[in-house]
Amino acid sequence: MTSDDRRSLDEVAAEFTDRRTPFARATVVRAQPPTSARAGDQALVTPDGQMFGFVGGQCAIESVRQTAVDSIADGEGVLLRVLPDGADAYPETSGALVAVNPCLSGGALEIFIQPVVPTPIIHVIGDKPIALAVVDQARLLGFEVRRADPDEAGGHDVSEPDAVMASIVATHGGDEAGAIRAALESGVPFVGLVASRTRGAAILDAMDLSAPERKRVHTPVGIDIGARTPPEIALSVMAQVVAAIRQGGIAVTHGTAAGADADAAGADAEGPRREVDPICGMTVVVTDDTVQCTDESGPHWFCCTGCRDTFVARSAGGLQAAR
């Protein structure tokens, strides 16, 4: 576990918030002796599994770590019950996730894990009534909004592109192709152009877009609700953005946006690496602080130093592997 005694958890959380770094706050709400944790103990966990604070012994930490990582990815809070193997504590399990840890020495814990994910950003380009109405509608829905004036220098630039969920081009003329290209090159997964069907198609046909890029551009943007006024058009635009989020067109992972079919998958999209402790069988999230040893068969990761020492002794012929 990573900790920093010089800073309080509130200071660490404030730093994460300022940097738009997603995290989960884990709070012990019930503890049964002889566990070392007490009600009210807290820890913060980042998407890569780094932990700050204290919520119990090493085996409890690993259960909290991987549950928190999943909670951040899902964006949903979790009540985690950490029980020793064979224990009959806290039997009521409705609505809770139960983790049974073979290496837990005793006692049971209930820990509430709440993800804190930065608000996604909607990037709006334009200063006409429809653009301003989209700004108002997006804010009403709880998005953070960045509006750019296309006539200003750098008006097409997408600030904090990793956090931008959608870029809406509502300039009604001007360099719309340049604004679309800037959004695509910044990796924005949903790009919407406010235009008629005929004009929008003509603009895209002249841009020589690849098939994946063309799939990310929506024009005329908005769900057809017969909208006529700027507020109605803004409602239809944001309805399509929300539908893309809720129905899988935009994947939001760790507080950043990415196209659901984006090429940049890799480890970040799948989450941090997980390995199985060869002694106790617990799944551990691999971080720089995870207990590890390497032998002729390669690297191995463990929930605690006790399991590692058992593995080393077993490899030397002193102990049998846990069954």
From TrEMBL:
Domain XdhC Rossmann: 123-241
Pfam families (alphabetical): XdhC_C, XdhC_CoxI
Name of the molecule in the record: Carbon monoxide dehydrogenase accessory protein
Organism: Gordonia mangrovi
XdhC- CoxI domain span: 19-81
